[in-house]
Automatic annotation (TrEMBL):
Protein species of origin: Arabidopsis suecica
Gene3D superfamilies in the cross-refs: Homeodomain-like (1.10.10.60)
Keyword terms: Coiled coil, DNA-binding, Homeobox, Nucleus, Transcription, Transcription regulation
Protein name: Homeobox-leucine zipper protein
Segments of this protein annotated with the region Disordered: 124-147
Coiled-coil intervals: 71-119
UniProt similarity note: Belongs to the HD-ZIP homeobox family. Class I subfamily.
Length: 176
């Protein structure tokens, strides 16, 4: 080994020593970082003097610490977004199933309405032709059209849609 190699080896050891910080230095740097993430030149000089470090070492430490802080913040944000997405996906799945259920109910109600309209059309046609004088209740008593109008909202799902239903009309009490 020549003199240059010895000198270079010695300098490398000195650089390595400078990079290692004592627990006290680390604690003070961390406390300072918690107070403010950015390092002003005056503060950098003050910290370097107080810790016995070069100002460039303090600056590099702060730069590295900000990078680690940003990485942790991104990981936290990512985890938070994943949790939010999972909750939204679950809510969406529930709403999708509810929507499908409601669509099925609407289809069923439309079918019932169509059947009722067919019955009413047949009844009106019979009245027009004189085959039927008035509607008959299941107990064979007569009732007026006004009484029938009172019952038109007994199917609230249909009333909301603008349809009306007369629950007294059934296939058994209509003369077909």
């Amino acid at each position: 080994m020549d003199e240059e190699d010895v000198c270079e080896s010695y300098m490398m050891r000195e650089i390595t020593k400078k990079r290692k910080l004592t627990p006290i230095q680390l604690r003070l740097l961390e406390e300072s970082f918690e107070e403010e993430k950015r390092l002003e030149p005056d503060r950098k000089l003050w910290l370097a003097e107080k810790l016995g470090l070069q100002p460039s070492q303090v600056a590099v430490w702060f730069q590295n610490r900000r990078a680690r802080y940003k990485t942790k913040q991104l990981e936290h944000d990512c985890d938070s977004l994943k949790a939010s997405y999972a909750k939204l996906k679950t809510d969406w799945d529930i709403l999708f199933v509810q929507n499908q259920t409601l669509k099925s109910k609407v289809d069923l109600l439309k079918e019932k309405l169509k059947m009722q309209e067919n019955l009413e059309t047949q009844s009106i046609e019979r009245k027009r032709l004189g085959e039927e004088g008035s509607s008959v209740k299941s107990d064979n008593t007569q009732y007026s059209e006004e009484e029938g109008l009172e019952n038109q909202y007994s199917f609230p799902e249909l009333a909301v849609l603008g349809f009306y239903y007369d629950p007294t009309l059934t296939a058994s009490n209509l003369r077909l």
